[in-house]
Structure formats: C-alpha cells, structure tokens
Design goal:
This protein is mainly alpha-helical. Helix content is 84%, strand content 0%. α2 runs parallel beside α10 and α10 packs parallel to α13.
Length: 454
Amino acid sequence: MPRALPRLLTDGRALATLAVPLALTQLAQVAVTTTDTVMMGLLGTEALAAGGLAMVIFNQLRTMGVGLVTAVGNQVAAADARGDSGELRDLVRASLLLATLAGAAGAVLMVGIGHAVAWLGQDPGVVEAAKPVIYAMAPGLLPCLWFQAIRQFTVGMNRPQALLRITLASIVVNIGLNWAFIHGVWIFPELGLPGIGLATSVVYTLTFLALYASARRDPGLAPLLSLAVWKTRPATLRRLTALGGPIAATYGSEAGFFSVVALLAGSFGTAALAAHTAVNQLVYIVFQIAVGLSHAASLGVSRQLAVGDTPGALRLRNTALAWAAAVMAVVAVVYLTVPRLVLAPFLDAGDGDATGIAVHLLLVAAVLQFFDCTQNIGVGLLRGLDDTKGGFRLTLVGYWLVGLPAAALLGLTAGLGTTGIWLGLLIGLATTAVLLMRRFTRKVAATAVAAPAC
C-alpha cells in the first residue's frame, strides 16, 4: 500500500500531461455551444427549446462526422514515423474528401430531420421556430469537419499548439457574432434566434481557415497539406472509412441515445425540453474532461501493450478512473449545493416550471456523470486495444436495449416525467460502463496470458 500512492501519482502526472491539453481544447470547443445555449435562454424559454432542438440534431450529425475522421491522426503518425511523405499527402486529401462527403450528406440529413421531428410528438410551435436555426446551422457541418480533418493531421504530426489558441479565439468571435446577428448590430441584419445558427456556421468556417493558415505557415506541414482531393487514392479513402466507421457508429450511438432522450423530454412540453437542454449542456461541458482522459488513456494503453506491460495498462485504467471520480465528485457537490446558481446562465429566473424541473434533473446528473465519464474512458481503453467494434456493440446494448426502455418505462409508464427519463439515461450509462470495463479487463488478461507464448 505505501508504494501504491507514489505509483498512482506518477501515473497520474503522466496521464495528465496528455489529458489536460486535450480536455482544455475540448472545453474551449464546447464553450462555443455553451454561449449559444446561454444566448438562446436570453431570448426566452421557447427560443431555448427551439434552439436546443436544432443543436441536438446538429450535434448528432457532427459527432458522427468527427468519428469518421478520428482515425486519421493515428494513420498520420504512423506514416510520419516511416517518413512516407507521399502517404501523408494522400491521407490529408482522403481525410478532407471524407469530411466533405460526410458534411454534405449531414447537412441534407439535418434539414430532413428538422422537418421529421414534427411527427415525433414535439410542440409544433417549437418545431417551426427551430427550422430557420437548422437551415442556418446545416452548412456549418462542412467547415466543421474540414477543421477536424486538419486537426487530426496536425495532432498526428505532433503540432497541436495552434488548436487551443484558435478554439479560444472562436469563443469570443462566436459571442460577438451571436449578438450582432440577433440584434442587427452595425452592418449585420437583425435575425433573432436564427442568427445564432448563422453565427455558428460562420465561426466554424473561420476556425477552419485559421487552422489551415496556421498549418500553411509551418514549414514541416505546408508541403504535405494537399487540397487536391480528386487525387485521393480510393484504397486510402476506403481504409479511413473502414477505420472511422466503427468510431462514428460508437459516437453516433451515444449521441443518438441522448437525442432520443431529448425527444422524450420534449413530449412533456416546452418547460421540460428547456430544462433538459440546460442540464444536458452542463453534462456535456463536464463530459469534455472525460474525453480528454479517454484519449490520453487510449494512447497510454497502446504504448503499454506495445512493450508488453499489461500491469501498466491496468494501472492506467485505474489512474484514469481515479482522476475521473475525483473531478466528478467536485462537480456533484456543486450541483447539489448551488443548483439554481449553476442553472442561472441557462434559464430565465422567472420561469419557475423549467427551473424546478432542471433542479430535479441536476440531482440525477450528479450521479449520472460518474457513469458517463467511466463509459467514455472505457471506449477509449478498448480503442487502445484496437477493439473499436466491441465498444460499439456494447454501447448498443447499454444505451438502446437497457437505457432507452428504462427511460420510457420510468418517464412515461411510471409517470415520473422528465426525471424518470433521466433516471433511465443513468441506468443506460451505468450498464454501458460496466460492460466496457469488464471487456477491457478480460482482453488485457487474455493478452497477458498469451504474451509468454509469443
């Protein structure tokens, strides 16, 4: 036991070296959507519900698109280690082509879903108010995914420095454009709520251009940054699609689960959907810490197993979970002690119905976030074992076969309303976390047994 603490601290520092920069970049990115949510709330409860509905659809498709290009970073790193500049150029071209195809398809699909949600029990007034926001946000999927493709390229080449600076700057730009488009400041038209959607598309375009320009100024990156997507080798595009497909499916499974939960919450009325949107955004912010830990743990497991250190891989799992538990405990204390203060930036203080529902949801969220963080780390750990398909299958079980029926049963059948929906969400995430961790432990144990025979 005396040796365990120093080992935990050493492993923790090593994990934090990777996880903290990644988490900060993720938090900076989510700050853009957070400012959108806050400014929607300033326009009223119905605006928050409508804008939240548009954001749910956008985030579902954006998340899956990001998953498609996530594997690019690993491929770039491997090609760079081999010194294969030709493959690096082709990877850049293929990733941009894949991002273009996914972004265009996602934009069309987003508009279609925006019309279809009217058949899913949503308030007609909210749906009509959401449509202009959807139309304005949909084109932003293209530059958003182009940005992600260039991001994976720069990270794979060990040059991620510009990412955090550009993302932080985008927060300020987003706030300014939101205000300008909402109120018609200076030369900008007065668009109201749809202005937030347009600002989002403009900000994604500007961040892509900024990251591309930064890479162009780097003498090590510029010669490899080819935009000639028509020269992409079909085999490279197929390889990236095959690698990214399971990751996109995993991301999509989780995002889809949250999207359906949002639709269930919306069936209880505008106040319920507004409360769900506010609390879901809070959970999403904290989730970025889990994303940083997950990516760092994934890379660490790959390194440990590459040198045959299976005990090190298990220690890394324990370290990641310990850090996650510590952070989530602090967050839970804040939720439980000052819930109305936490909700104040998102909800109109005069809307007692939405605030009352949201306070109850925060009680559930205080526990839910432990499991949400754990299951995301579990997906990352399995990715470190190259087991992306297994992670996807387990999320299907946890979210859709356990979580969604539990949400419907508790929220609709048992009459617990939006709180019941969130209890079902908690059950689904807890089930997923247990399944993922069990699979990781068993696969690492199998690797340890097989190692002596190699």
